[in-house]
Amino acid sequence: MDWHSRWAERQTPWDLQQITPPLEHLLRERTLTDHGLRPEARIAVPGCGRGHDLRAFAARGHRGVGFDLVSEAVAEARSLLELNGVEEGEEPGQAQVFCRDVLGLGPEQEGQFDLVYDYTCFCALPPHLRATYAGGMARILGENGLFLLLAFPMHESRTGKDGPPLLITPEHLEEAFSPHFELLSDFDPIQSAVSRLGAERWYLWRRRP
After folding, report:
1. Which of 85, 116, 151, 172 is buried deepest, with most CB atoms within 10 A?
2. Phi, psi for residue 66 in degrees, rounded to 5
3. Using alpha carbons only, what angle is made at residue 62 by residues 56 and 67, rounded to the nearest 5 degrees?
4. Under a CB-based contact definition with an 8 Å cutoff, are residues 62 and 40 in contact?
5. What order do you get walking across the sheet with 42-46 strand by strand?
6. Could you give the CA distance from residue 10 to residue 51 in angstroms, rounded to a whole number?
7. pTM, entire model
8. DSSP character for 86?
9. CB 18: neighbour CB atoms within 10 A?
10. Residue 98's closest CA among 64, 149, 141, 57?
11. What pLDDT digit, counting tens, does each position of 149-196 carry?
C-alpha cells in the first residue's frame, strides 16, 4: 500500500472524520480506569492518522502521543489538535504527534507508555508483520501496561479488495499477542459507526512481566 499517495489524493476511507464513537463511550464508562489505568496516563496511538482519538484521551486528562508513517497525516493531526484546542505537549490533557514507522518504536520509546490504543493500524499490516508489531508494542509499554484494540474488520464483507483493511480473527490475535500479553477482556463495542456495525470488537490485554 502506498500510504503517501493515498493521503496526497485524499483517499482515506478509514478516517471516520470524528473521534471514534465506541472509544468515547468506553472512556465515559471508566472501563479503562477500572483495569488500573491511572489518571494522566501516557497513551500511544500508533497509526493515528488525523489524530481524532488523541482528542478523546486529552479530554480525559491523559497525555496522548500519536505516531504515523505519513508526514501529511502528521501535519493534519497537529492542525486538528490545535483547531480543537488541544495544546501540544507532554502535560496531562495535551497531545503530540510524530512521524514514525510504528514497527520501529521500541528502541526510542521503550517502557514509556501506560497504554497503547489501536484502531485500524493492526488491520493495515501484512500478516507476516503482525507478530513483530505486537512485540514492539509490548516493548514500549511500562510494567503492567495495557494494550487496547478495537479490532476491525472481523467479517470478510468489510475487508479491502486489494489490501487493507485485512481480516482479523480471534486466532490471528491469539497468535500475535499471546506471547507478550495476557487477555483481560473482550466485548462488543457500543455506538459503532453504521458502516462497521457488527464487524468490530474490543480487546484489552495487559503486558506480561
Report:
1. 116
2. -100, 145
3. 70
4. yes
5. 95-99, 63-68, 42-46, 113-118, 141-151, 201-207, 181-187
6. 16
7. 0.95
8. P
9. 13
10. 64
11. 999 999 998 897 777 999 999 999 999 999 999 999 999 999 999 999
HSE (side-chain half, CA atoms, 13 Å) at 132: 10
**pLDDT at position 1, please?**
67
Average pLDDT, stretch 192-208?
96
Contact 137, 46 (CB under 8 A): yes
DSSP character at residue 38? P
Separation CA 174–CA 155 (nearest Å): 17
Residue 180: what residue type? H
What per-residue string of b and e applies to 200-209 under the rule 16 or more CB within 10 Å gives b? bbbbbbbbee
Under DSSP, is residue 15 helix (H, G, I), strand (E, B) or coil?
Answer: coil
Q: Answer yes or no: are the C-beta atoms of 41 and 64 closer than 8 Å.
A: no
For cell 495495557, what's the residue? 146
Residue 103, C-beta contacts closer than 8 angstroms, at least 6 positions apart: 129, 132, 133, 136
